[in-house]
Amino acid sequence: MKTFARALCGAVSMIAVTAAAPALAEPKAEVLHYWTSGGEAKAVQALQEAFAARGGEWVDAPVAGGGGDAQAAVLRARVLAGDPPAAVQIKGPNIQEWAEAGALGDLTAVATAQDWDKVLPEAIQNIVKYEGKYVAVPVNVHRVDWIWANPEVLAKVGAEVPTSWEEFNETADKLQATGIIPLAHGGQPWQDATVFETVVLGIGGTDFYRKALVELDMDALGSDTMVAVFDQMRKMRGYVDPDFPGRDWNLATAMVMRGEAAMQIMGDWAKGEFAAAGKVPGVDYVCASTPSDNGYLLNSDSFAMFNVSGDDNVEGQAVLAELILGTEFQETFNLFKGSIPARTDVPRAEFDDCAIKSMDDMVAAAEGGTLLGSMAHEIAQAGAVRGAFIDVATAHFNSDMSSQDAVDQLVKAIKLAQ
Ligand code: BGC
């Protein structure tokens, strides 16, 4: 992607997105995103409405397909055609790569006016800055390592949300014995990778996760611990119903809501689905972090402003950037999305217990050194390396490949991808 992005954008210099001053032109923005599920659509609509309230003309460019892989292909094609959208939902190392290619506008003016350095945690600043300058505006923090469970269904086997992987397996075995689907899962590679990384975190621990998935340490990748991770993944596969291939993640969430399955392992965008369906946390569903040694797998959505021409577009980008990090909008958006605000000074009063847990756990993890970027959701890795992890995780999940073969393939694939 690096070479590709560089070749596309060549020496195009970074334009500066100015802080929204008295409008010289009607603000306009074509916004590329992949928020198409019930909860996601509500959240993006809140942004659309806030933009319209500022006189903005929103050109919606949604690409269906959770996890953003389909959108990435559309973005590349648009840039290749010399016609990038004004604002694009991208994250992690992708931001750095597009910035390095000279494709992104510089958000320094807005960032200075709103004092982003003061209100954003360092972990988020590092994601959205390129060479010390802001090139993307963060919308939220999504935690990935969550279990979403239906308490009534768990109660049928006298269980509560498991707090260790042994307990997870015991509960799942009991559920299965009574004909209940233990794990709601959608069969798409990124969903397999989402479960995989929570298992890496839980079975291996935070240090192992860092070594294997962040630092790409070959000893960790080829270790017996990784064999144990794939052993657990084989168990997980056994807890999923036979109709899972191709299922969207939100349909898996709906299975938990309807009591057809007991649990789902998914980031807290799943909470956006529960919220959109009027479900109440602690009553209709419960949230718990997947078992680990106080790990926190961080994912954060943000918008980057691509170099576009036309005063209306440039004005639109400035208005959007300012709007997105506004305290009020951060609250509204994240209540719909299931995530927590990217800025740390948003009042907590409206947020539910799951969100408060996420806020507290994130601070504790940052202090304790257990805050880790998600591999599946493009924070720790992007491009070919992330692709290699996902390919092996999904190939193993969807076949009878042995754990040792999966580990051997993983080592080979990551070596090749680097
Ligand atoms: C994104 C979320 C999105 C989810 C499902 C994640 O990678 O960060 O915003 O809701 O994928 O599409």
UniProtKB/TrEMBL annotation:
Q: Where in the cell is it found?
A: Periplasm
UniProt KW keywords? Signal, Transport
Superkingdom field: Bacteria
For this record, the Gene Ontology CC terms, alphabetical, are: periplasmic space
UniProt keyword Signal present: yes
Signal sequence segment: 1-25
Sorted alphabetically, which SUPFAM superfamilies does this protein's record hold? Periplasmic binding protein-like II (SSF53850)
InterPro entries the record matches: Bact_solute-bd_prot1 (IPR050490), SBP (IPR006059)
Cross-referenced Pfam families = SBP_bac_1
Main location class: periplasm
Q: What does this protein do?
A: Part of a binding-protein-dependent transport system for a sugar.
Protein family (similarity comment): Belongs to the bacterial solute-binding protein 1 family.
Put simply, this protein is called Probable sugar-binding periplasmic protein
Instruction: Supply the source organism for this entry.
Output: Parasedimentitalea maritima
